[in-house]
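User: Can you predict the 3D structure for this chain?
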Amino acid sequence: MGRSEAHGVRAAAEKIVRRLRAAGHEAFFAGGCVRDHLRAVEPHDYDVATDALPERVAALFPGRSDLVGKSFGVVIVREGGHPIEVATFRCDGPYLDGRHPSSVTFTDAREDAGRRDFTVNALFWDPVSGEIRDYVGGRADLEARLLRAVGDPGRRFEEDRLRLLRAVRFAANLGFEIEAETWRALRERAGQIGVVSAERIRDELSRWLTGPDPARGLDLMDSSGLLAELLPEVAAQKGVDQPPQFHPEGDVFTHVRIMLGRLRGAGEVLAWSVLLHDIGKPVTRSVDRDGRIRFNGHEVVGERMARDLLARLRFSNAKADAICACVANHMTFKDAPEMRVARLKRLLARETFDDELELHRIDCLASHGDLSIYDFLVARRTELSGESLRPDPLLRGLDVLERGIAPGPRVGAILREAYELQLNGELRDRDAALAWLKNQLRS
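Assistant: Here is the predicted structure, written as structure tokens:
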């Protein structure tokens, strides 16, 4: 979201606040937008909290409000083309499923702050006067860069187990320390994370992986016990030593952590590819008679493991396919300088090539440091930029069938060979391709 759009969202939210105020209600900005505002970071979305009941909010904004969470006091108001969440102050009843309150009671701002997750997310901001309302010590924790649960941390995590992952995400992305009692309660309840839906878990994991410090997120996941619960394939990389001549940095887990440390706001495909590219190593590790450590076929095994893991987290097929392509192909780059032009073009033409290339670059930087293959590929891509990497075939199946070849495997073999020659530059036009075909059928 650009700066102008962010300003548009704020203006829309402020207009809603003013309308609620004019109707005699309390209304504030609430949650993450207040936290980011106080950190001098431009918020990208704004939530409004008010003492107006949901039906009253809907009545004040007729024709452009949806009671999407009436039982929880949530109304989406469309203002200036922007959907703004407007929530009535509430306190929550018992959480029976570890995720949602069984009931809510509408209340005032102070009690509403007391049911929120972390103190830095429980602040209210009056956009008209600029006043900040802080009932839980959130400003002090913000200044101390400390993530602290509101009230009893054990109770907060028992209410909603997703908060275990939210704590990791906020601490990693904000660069905050987790307060001691909050951290203790988190570690004690890491084993309960399984009650959260796979989709919610996936989204929270992606948010720190694509954030500004994914290496810190990995550290927190590991030391909290959440990594072993949710991503045991990644946790299994700890202590798996590697050939020191290629990996002087240490074991597989250390290697992956160093790679994550080079990511800053990466796309989801690249971030997950970095995390998963070597998960096949623990199960393929072997030692030669001469003592050399090997991981033969780890990219093949890793691709299967990654696909199972991504399916477990309910990734879309398209996203899983892209991540798995990066995992499966990450060892092919070492052969690039010896590839024939046709194979090289196919490599460059892969839809995931940009992510694969960046994965290769940081893979090298996190190990032996040799970027010669990366530099070679960048140069070859520049050289071949004027050519089509995926040209239309000069020969079609009908060309072969019309010359008396019966449908079957031979047709496909001829077409594949012709396309290989075309990519290599040995067949440059259709006439040359037809002449080649004629010669092939004579032999």
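The mean pLDDT is 91. Residues 328-383 form one domain.
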